[in-house]
UniProtKB/TrEMBL annotation:
Domain DUF8198: 17-232
One Pfam family recorded for the sequence: DUF8198
Source organism, top-level taxon: Bacteria
Name of the protein in question: DUF8198 domain-containing protein
Species of the source: Acinetobacter towneri
UniProt cross-references to InterPro entries, sorted A to Z: DUF8198, FFLEE_fam
Length: 234
């Protein structure tokens, strides 16, 4: 079985999302993603501001939580899968596994946020600016607690794998050797998605430690939301 088969399944899920054919939903999804990023920047301001954490914080906000290039990235992954047998010969297996985990997280984030956007369109005017109370009530109505905890568990696993597989000099050297092929065959966005992960790790002693600090705080917020706390994002 192809090592890239999981990516094929992820893309099939991604292209089923309703926002692809609904401009109003797409706009609301963008609103939700913008709110999410602003909220995370607020919540994790101290952690994100530490010099060695800056690149990893940017990777979280712009890659794992719905980056602006994700449609283009999905298109490049779809093209790559047509040449899976060749790609598997030049991309290190551990890089494929870890990259797939990153893509899976990004797609799950979009899936959960699309559900929020759909509910918001049902409950509020489409152009109404989002605020914390709207989001708190929407999270409660959707009861996404278990799904959001799954997302954080996956993130914890990604942190472990980044430390375990992606700090290897051999793996990074092999990855850099793919740069020419990525440019030649127009896979720059996909290459940059993975390269940003490598660069974000460099200043860190442990990606797992960074992720654990982030997910611990996020779990506390989820617990507050579902416990009825009126200000869970403060």
């Amino acid at each position: 079985m192809s090592k890239l088969a999981a990516l094929d399944e992820l893309l099939e899920l991604y292209y089923q999302f309703k926002y692809h054919k609904n401009p109003m939903l797409f706009q609301r999804l963008q609103d939700v993603q913008a709110w999410q990023k602003q909220r995370m920047q607020r919540t994790h301001a101290t952690q994100f501001a530490e010099k060695h954490n800056v690149l990893m914080a940017e990777y979280f906000l712009n890659r794992l939580y719905g980056g602006p290039d994700f449609d283009a990235l999905a298109g490049q992954i779809a093209r790559l899968l047509k040449y899976a047998h060749k790609a598997e010969k030049i991309i290190p297996e551990n890089a494929i596994k870890t990259g797939t985990s990153g893509v899976s997280l990004a797609i799950l984030a979009v899936q959960l946020d699309e559900q929020v956007a759909i509910q918001l369109l049902q409950d509020y005017p489409e152009n109404m600016p989002l605020n914390d109370e709207m989001m708190r009530l929407t999270y409660l109505k959707l009861d996404q607690g278990e799904a959001r905890l799954k997302q954080l568990n996956m993130l914890d696993e990604l942190g472990k794998n980044l430390d375990k597989y992606m700090r290897s000099f051999v793996v990074y050297t092999a990855f850099k050797m793919c740069k020419g092929a990525a440019q030649k065959y127009s896979f720059q966005i996909m290459y940059e998605f993975m390269q940003d992960g490598f660069l974000a790790m460099k200043p860190l002693k442990s990606a797992e430690k960074f992720v654990k600090q982030f997910t611990t705080t996020e779990r506390e917020i989820i617990a507050k939301v579902h416990a009825g706390d009126l200000h869970p994002f403060s």
